[in-house]
Amino acid sequence: MTCVLIVDDDRDHAESLADVIEMRGHTVQLAYSGEEAIDCFRDTDFGFVLLDVKLPGINGVDTFLELKKIRPAAQVMMMTGYSVEQLVAQAIEGGALGVLLKPFAATQVLELLSKVKERGRVLIADGDADCVNAIVPILEGAGYSVEVAATGPEALEKMRRENVDCLLLNLRLPVLSGSELYAQLVAAGRTVPTVLITGGPEDAEQDARLRSQTCGMLFKPFDPNALLTAIGSAVSLSQAG
Q: Is the pTM above the cut of 0.70?
């Protein structure tokens, strides 16, 4: 499911849309101005944004351009009830998905959400079921496809046979440690941008060499936004290559 940001100063319209989208299992956050939307977007990695063109203060197109600076891969659909072709054209040129003309049916939004491009494939290699169960909905809510491996050999097999954009790797992985798994991936030529998970500084000290070869390290318990930032950077690096 997708984490959606709706930006519209028409509160009734925004809340009605949110109700329909949430009924389909997506999560929704509302913002009623461009400034509020930008603050929300900095704090949360939304998979899809519905953005009104006419907003108080900073207009929707300028808001959109700011969102793209924060997260260039942002998927944004503009919406408007006014004739503002020049503004809409500017947004489309900047990478907006398109424009919905008000009034539009909520089913149009649901159809768009069903087609939101998968942001990337992440393999979580971690034997800590509680940690995995907390991470998976966060990543899926942000639009990532997620695979899980509970042991080193299972992770190695999945990395060999599947296309993965990012590896989220627990250093204390059962059977085959995180550093041993990474060494085998290097030998097999199957490395991808990797984010390490550790329980404390002592692990980081023991695996300083591995840390220098990867994209970052998260110390448990970590903030969801730190997780999304690290994964986003790793996936972007993978897809850029």
A: no
